[in-house]
Amino acid sequence: MPIVTIQVTREGSKPGNDSVTADEKAALIGGVSQLLLDVLNKPLDSTFVVIQEVETENWGWGGLPVEAYRKQRGLKLD
Amino acid sequence: MPIVTIQVTREGSKPGNDSVTADEKAALIGGVSQLLLDVLNKPLDSTFVVIQEVETENWGWGGLPVEAYRKQRGLKLD
Amino acid sequence: MPIVTIQVTREGSKPGNDSVTADEKAALIGGVSQLLLDVLNKPLDSTFVVIQEVETENWGWGGLPVEAYRKQRGLKLD
Amino acid sequence: MPIVTIQVTREGSKPGNDSVTADEKAALIGGVSQLLLDVLNKPLDSTFVVIQEVETENWGWGGLPVEAYRKQRGLKLD
Amino acid sequence: MPIVTIQVTREGSKPGNDSVTADEKAALIGGVSQLLLDVLNKPLDSTFVVIQEVETENWGWGGLPVEAYRKQRGLKLD
Amino acid sequence: MPIVTIQVTREGSKPGNDSVTADEKAALIGGVSQLLLDVLNKPLDSTFVVIQEVETENWGWGGLPVEAYRKQRGLKLD
Question: What residues does the 4-oxalocrotonate tautomerase-like domain cover (chains A, B, C, D, E, F) (predicted)?
Answer without folding.
Answer: 2-68
